[in-house]
Specification:
- The complex is a heterodimer of chains A (281) and B (256).
- Chain A is 77% helix and 0% strand.
- In chain A, helix 1 packs across helix 11 (251-279).
- Chain A has helices at residues 2-38, 43-47, 61-92, 99-116, 120-134, 141-165, 169-177, 182-211, 214-217, 237-247, 251-279.
- Helices cover 34% and strands 27% of the residues of chain B.
- Chain B contains ten helices and ten strands.
- A ten-stranded mixed β-sheet of chain B has the order 5-4-1-2-10-9-3-8-7-6.
- The relative contact order of chain B is 0.19.
- Classes of the chains: A mainly alpha (281), B alpha/beta (256).
- Chain A binds chain B through residues 94-95, 97, 168, 170-171, 173-181, 184, 188-189, 192-193, and chain B through 53, 55, 58, 60-61, 81-85, 88-89, 91, 93, 95-99, 107-108, 111-112, 157, 160-161, 164.
Chain lengths: 281, 256
């Protein structure tokens, strides 16, 4: 009896320590970036573009625009593809009895799982070979968005699948029993109930685009100028952090940009929570 | 039987893959009546009722032999959407959509092409009146259907089925998830509805079958676990002087 109580206390203490340590590490990292970074941040930092060069002059205006541009373009490609594939896998694939299609679907599922674990630079190399070089899109928002699409599609497919699977079968039955077709049922009953989970996946993907570096290093290039079209090269904020840290003397500006990035990611996560709470009412 | 018949099964046999769930069912469902399907668990009651509107089509690898006729038309030769408009269904657990009360009832008419708001409103009111729910919800039509009690939800599901003006309503143990008071309301409602509709109800509850139904079909599994129709007839006769020994054993509670 005594021994069990001791064990209990030890286990709890160990978990407390683990939890506390994790939090401490997180706070130190974020705190360091914030404190060092915010020292340099002022309105000018947001409003001026980088001027290039070794000294890292200028702010981050053009990188903010490039980031937003890239996120939107990627999601425009990835959302319909990913959500569509997720709907097909959950709502249609299993009702096909052809053995060939079943094998195809099984390998598609396996492919999605595998893709979700592939390092982003692999997608970058693929994007570089196909979009930048073979298709002559060059270093551009377009090349980067297409490579980024490959990166986030598994995320969107899987969150869509999870969201659709969570919709009770009885909703579908009720709709079909009234004489609704399969697509009407999916569109009018299943999707509205799953929209919360699906949008979580989309916002998650936005976060991924904002934070990835390697994949865009080889597809977006690194121009610090403001992108003006799909064919413009550019530099996302995360890429800018990399360039500032490795190729200029302005390490403090790298930290300042990083601080803005951290705030942005936190905001995105807040958006996920608010959106899902709002949609689930 | 001399009554008008709305649905007929003819040698209807249902397979799920290699498993035979129903064997050679032949019976007639008379119009404007309540037909109860009774039998022990796993005897194929639900499989049979889900055959009338082809809900078993949803099960991959399901296959049928024989046929079912609705208004003398083979249900497998006509469009499944038309069939399900004619033969509505209410499920075991209330399953309203997570939409407003109004949108739940208007769902069917909208699917089938009614767009006009005032027409929809008229259909919704009529359906809710017919399902004895109108007085309870008339001021809350925009409220979520999920805010209703279980019994109200089930009557809402009945209203949703009525809204597309079916001829037949299939009810798969419609009261098994409800309390006695809500059950009584559903039973009273069925009595009322049979004047306009034909009702087929699966029930586990023998008293319920005896109380509400005009005809009773008794199903039992054979040695291969396939459901067979043992006896079909007027409820008053099935429950007082069953022809088959197995029917008598079941209704007197000797098994099941």
């Amino acid at each position: 009896m005594k021994l069990r109580t001791v064990k209990q206390h030890m286990a709890f203490s160990a978990m407390w320590v683990a939890c506390g340590l994790t939090l401490a590490i997180l706070l130190v990292v974020i705190g360091y970036v914030m404190i060092k970074g915010f020292a340099l941040i002022n309105l000018d930092f947001f409003l001026t573009s980088p001027r290039g060069g070794l000294s890292g002059e200028g702010g981050i205006a053009s990188t903010i625009i490039a980031t937003v541009y890239l996120v939107i373009t990627t999601l425009v490609f990835a959302t319909p593809l990913g959500v569509g594939a997720g709907i097909f896998l959950v709502e249609y694939a299993d009702s096909i009895s052809s053995r060939f299609v079943k094998k195809l679907v099984a390998s598609a599922r396996f492919g999605v799982e595998t893709l979700a674990g592939v390092p982003s630079i692999i997608f970058g190399l693929f994007g570089y070979a196909l979009f930048v070089t073979a298709l002559h899109f060059g270093f551009s928002i377009l090349s980067a968005a297409l490579a980024g699409t490959c990166l986030v599609i598994p995320v969107i497919i899987r969150t869509t699948e999870e969201a659709l699977k969570a919709v009770p079968m009885s909703y579908r039955e009720a709709s079909l029993a009234i004489g609704a077709g399969k697509w009407e049922t999916v569109w009018k009953v299943v999707l509205p109930s799953a929209v919360r989970g699906i949008s979580t996946g989309i916002v998650l993907s936005a976060g991924r685009i904002v934070s990835e570096t390697a994949i865009f290093y080889v597809t977006l290039g690194g121009s610090y100028r403001t992108p003006t079209s799909l064919m413009s090269s550019g530099r996302t904020m995360a890429l800018h952090v990399y360039y500032l840290a490795m190729e200029t003397r302005a390490f403090d500006k790298a930290l300042a940009t990083a601080a803005v990035l951290v705030v942005l990611i936190i905001l995105l996560n807040l958006v996920i929570n608010t959106v899902s709470r709002w949609l689930s009412r | 039987m001399t009554e008008d018949v709305v649905m007929k099964t003819r040698g209807y046999t249902l397979f799920y893959g290699g498993f035979k769930a129903l064997n050679d069912i032949t019976m007639d469902i008379p119009v404007n009546s309540i037909t109860a399907i009774i039998g022990p668990s796993g005897c194929g009651k639900s499989s049979l009722i889900r055959s009338f509107n082809r809900m078993n089509d949803l099960i991959v690898d399901s296959r049928v032999e024989g046929t079912i006729l609705v208004d003398d038309e083979d249900i497998y030769s006509k469009d499944v959407v038309e069939l399900r408009k004619k033969v509505g269904m209410v499920f075991q657990r209330p399953n309203p959509f997570p939409k407003s009360i109004f949108d739940n009832v208007a769902y069917g008419p909208r699917i089938h092409g009614t767009r006009d708001r005032s027409k929809l409103a008229a259909i919704v009111e009529k359906s809710l009146r017919d399902s004895a729910l109108w007085d309870e919800v008339k001021d809350d039509l925009d409220k979520s259907a999920l805010s209703l009690s279980g019994g109200q939800q089930q009557r809402l599901c009945i209203a949703r089925a009525l809204a597309v003006e079916p001829e037949v309503i299939l009810m798969d143990e419609p009261a098994s998830a409800l309390d006695p008071v809500a059950t009584l309301k559903i039973e009273e409602l069925m009595e009322k509805l049979k004047r306009k509709y034909t009702i087929v109800v699966v029930t586990h509850n023998m008293q319920q079958a005896a109380r509400v139904s005009d005809y009773t079909a008794f199903l039992l599994t054979d040695v291969d676990r396939a459901g067979n129709l043992i006896e079909f007839g007027r409820t008053s006769e099935i429950f007082t002087k069953p022809v088959d020994k197995r029917t008598e054993d079941y209704i007197s509670g000797r098994f099941g």
